[in-house]
Design goal:
alpha/beta; Rossmann fold; 5-stranded parallel beta sheet; 8 helices; about 55% helix; globular; binds thymidine-5'-phosphate
């Protein structure tokens, strides 16, 4: 499907790579500059999707099979694309999505060993053929990310438990990271790998320096994105 309005930026990365912080930081930055932005996430982003997210992340659901898990991510995605992403793109907004189809390929494909072609096929169906215009892959060593994720649990919710994915082995997270890096090598035009081992403010500067010129270029070339100089 070709799309002529809006601009879709996805954030990807392993656990604790800082993508949620960076997506929030970019949203603030772009809004301050006058861009019309919508920040959303997967799994979730809709009423149904948020309920599916709870099932997917609950550490009590360790009976979930890899294929069952895959279908739940795709179910959340199709709701999200039809109810949130497509309408926002049609309005010409810059949509920032915290994880999208590449996450399914990295986690369910590369890390859970489901057939990559099948995952790509289901991704295409669920996303209605929508492909991100730009993907920022925040990359850092898995031990560093997992360390940050566990500090976050302690700091924000001392009573919280690790979710189903945070309990996976280092080898699993290593496969996720390698999978993401392979996907980035396969799509060099769309995916920018960003060093997420640096401190959050430095990563934020890099993210803004990558994104803003690209959006200005899209506007300059007559793209239909709601931003500076456009209503
Ligand atoms: P989060 O860390 O971005 O909140 O995502 C929740 C978890 O879901 C995270 O461990 C990655 C995982 N995930 C998948 O396994 N497949 C997917 O398609 C998506 C979107 C997320």
């Amino acid at each position: 499907m070709t799309r002529s309005t809006g601009y879709l930026i996805t954030f990807e990365g392993t656990e604790g790579s800082g993508k949620t912080t960076q997506a929030e930081g970019l949203e603030k930055f772009l809004k301050n500059k006058g861009w019309q932005c919508k920040l959303t996430r997967e799994p979730g982003g809709t009423l149904v999707g948020d309920q599916v997210r709870k099932i997917l992340l609950s550490s009590e659901n360790n009976e979930l099979t890899p294929l069952g898990e895959l279908f739940l991510y795709e179910a959340s995605r199709v709701q999200h694309v039809l109810q949130v992403i497509e309408p926002a793109l049609e309005k010409g907004m810059v949509v920032l999505c915290d994880r999208f189809c590449d996450a399914t390929l990295a986690y369910q494909g590369y890390a859970r060993h489901l057939d990559l072609k099948m995952v790509e096929h289901l991704n295409r169906l669920a996303s209605q053929g929508i492909v991100p215009d730009l993907t920022l892959l925040l990359d850092c060593p898995v031990e560093m990310g997992l360390g940050r994720a566990s500090q976050r649990i302690d700091a924000r919710e001392p009573a919280a438990k690790e979710d189903r994915f945070e309990r996976e082995s280092i080898a699993f997270h290593q496969r996720v990271r390698e999978g993401y890096l392979q996907i980035a090598r396969n799509h060099p035009g769309r995916i920018r790998v960003i060093d997420a081992s640096l401190k959050a403010p430095e990563v934020h500067r890099t993210v803004c320096n990558v994104v803003e010129p690209i959006l200005r270029e899209v506007l300059a070339q007559g793209g239909s994105v709601s931003g500076l100089g456009r209503e």
